[in-house]
Design goal:
Dihydrolipoamide Transferase; 20 strands; 407 residues; 3 domains; OB fold (Dihydrolipoamide Acetyltransferase, E2P); Chloramphenicol Acetyltransferase; globular; alpha+beta
């Protein structure tokens, strides 16, 4: 008996997905609930599982666009499960000089599971401990030849496969995720009255805290103490002080939020994604750092769900990790503002008539001027700056003495 595996419903507004990768080959056995393929929608990558144990019969191909309900594969549930092959005996860790010579005259053997090499090339790879993935094969059927290995040894700084003065062009199909990112960026530029205001932050106090407490923090909470938790905490207090920055326009209405769902821009293998930290205003520093690590790991592995990327009220993006000095981030619609972090650079600063070298960071707030006025945008960014330069204010959202005196 054969059962069909169909494209499941993944969201209200999603009508089409792309089959990105088969994880089970045609004719291969799959256990029940085992992942057999990866699909990509315009918002996220997700997996489909085998509903029953059996042999997979592929129907769709990698790269095919499929509608919701289309058949991806069928499973022959009456097929007999093949026996599990016995594990091969481990090879000896060391070989004599005579044995090494014998290896060189043996028939061609795979260097890795999917790469083959000539006997001489295989011997050089083993002797020089070269990663075969860095070698561009020139032989038939993808075979690595002796000259391919010598080219790597003679040109260690040259990227494999790059030919001098080449004018080759490659055409690649745009993924659904990249299409969505492109559409939303253009929509944000065309439908919002976007402006950007800048400021700079002395990162010295935060860097001192991290230097002093990072080991104890890691030991106590199991996560590293990064910059993102400080910025997220500061933004949550500022968003509650300036609610229009945490709001967005819906038709002729303005929707305000009494909570802070902070979207964190993450560069994933297939494009930019913005997973959301829910109720960030209620989390402590360790909770924020743990959420950042979890979401960033899922993004890297293409495991984010649509729910984890939907519903943010404000976005933080960190171009500084790539070396950006200053930029104007684009609003993540339907949100009304986005904060851009940049790299930390030691610069001379005038303090009380003296020049002092300080670690400084430029910060930028892009905002929709239709809903956020200049006073609110500048006030928001100044408040974030003050909290970061005086981290004790992150306890109460204001100066501790003023909090004590109820000022």
């Amino acid at each position: 008996m054969a059962i069909d595996i169909k494209v499941p419903t993944v969201g209200e507004s999603i009508n089409e997905v792309t089959l990105v990768k088969w994880l089970k080959s045609d004719g291969e056995w799959a256990d029940r609930d085992e992942v057999i393929a990866e699909l990509e929608s315009e918002k996220a990558t997700f997996e489909i599982n085998a509903e029953k144990a059996g042999v997979i019969r592929q129907i769709a191909k990698e790269g095919d666009n499929l509608a919701i309900g289309d058949i991806v594969a069928s499973i022959d549930t009456e097929a007999i499960q093949p026996e599990t092959p016995k594990a091969k005996a481990p090879k000896a860790e060391k070989a004599s000089v005579t044995e090494k010579k014998e290896i060189a005259i043996e028939p061609v053997e795979p260097v890795t599971d999917d790469t083959k090499a000539s006997p001489v090339a295989a011997a050089i790879i083993a002797d020089k401990k070269i990663d075969s993935k860095n070698i561009t094969p020139s032989g038939s059927n993808g075979k690595i030849l002796k000259q391919d290995v010598l080219d790597i040894l003679n040109n260690p700084g040259k990227k494999p496969g790059i030919i001098a003065f080449s004018r080759n062009e490659r055409v690649e199909k745009m993924s659904n995720l990249r299409k969505t990112v492109s559409r939303r960026l253009v929509e944000a530029k065309n439908t919002t009255a976007m402006l950007t205001t800048f400021n700079e932050v002395d990162m010295g106090p935060i860097m001192e805290i991290r230097k002093k407490f990072k080991d104890k923090f890691k030991e106590s909470h199991g996560v590293n103490l990064g910059f993102m938790s400080f910025f997220t905490k500061a933004c949550c207090f500022a968003l509650q002080q300036f609610p229009s920055v945490n709001a967005y326009i819906d038709g002729e209405s303005i929707i305000y939020h009494d909570y802070c769902d902070i979207s964190i821009a993450v560069s994933a293998p297939k494009g930019l994604v913005v997973p959301v930290i829910r109720n960030a205003e209620s989390l402590d520093m360790a909770g924020i750092e743990a959420a950042v690590v979890e979401l960033a790991t899922k993004a890297k592995n293409n495991k984010l769900t649509i729910e984890e990327m939907s519903g943010g009220t404000f976005t933080i993006t960190n171009g500084g990790i790539f070396g950006s000095m200053m930029s104007t981030p684009i609003i993540n619609i339907p949100q009304s503002a986005i904060l851009g972090m940049h790299n930390i650079v030691e610069r001379p600063m005038a303090v009380n008539g003296q020049v002092i070298i300080k670690p400084m960071m430029y910060v930028a707030l892009s905002y929709d001027h239709r809903i956020i006025d200049g006073r609110e945008s500048v006030g928001f960014l100044v408040m974030v700056k003050q909290m970061l330069e005086n981290p004790s204010q992150l306890l109460f959202g204001k100066d501790p003495v003023e909090a004590l005196l109820h000022l």
